[in-house]
Each structure stands twice: as C-alpha cells, then as structure tokens.
Amino acid sequence: MSVELTSKQVKCRKKHRCDWCGEVIEASYEAHYRTGIHDGEFFTEYMHPECWDALGKSDLGYDDNYYPMDQQRGKTYDESHA
Question: What pLDDT sits at residue 80?
Fold first, then answer.
C-alpha cells in the first residue's frame, strides 16, 4: 500500500534520474517531485513533466507493479510496452 506525502512541480537544483523513463533530468530543469511511503519504506522520485503526465494517463502507481525507469519518455505504460 502507498501513501503519497508530497507531490509538486519543482526546479531541480541538481541532476536527477527520471523515475519513469530513467533519463537524466538536468539541474535547473522543471520536474515533478513526490515523496511517500510504500510498503513501510519512504520514497522520493523525480519525473520529467511529460513523464508525470504519462503516468497519470496510465493510471499506474507502485501498487500496480510498474517498473520504475522502464518506460519511454513521455509515453504511457501501454505505449512503452506495445
């Protein structure tokens, strides 16, 4: 079970890896940041804005067993695995 604690759009201060596609999000670029608790473990993640949108369209989350960094940038789960 997951509990989302924080979810917001941020400007990155350093490089991060997108949790959706695995590509680098450069410092000073916009990203979607969220934190939460999944199965008792704290998590943080960053995503490109287009990857965050793709996640929303896919209607997936940690409880749906999607594999982080295993999708194509900006594409839904179904588009990435067609």
Answer: 80
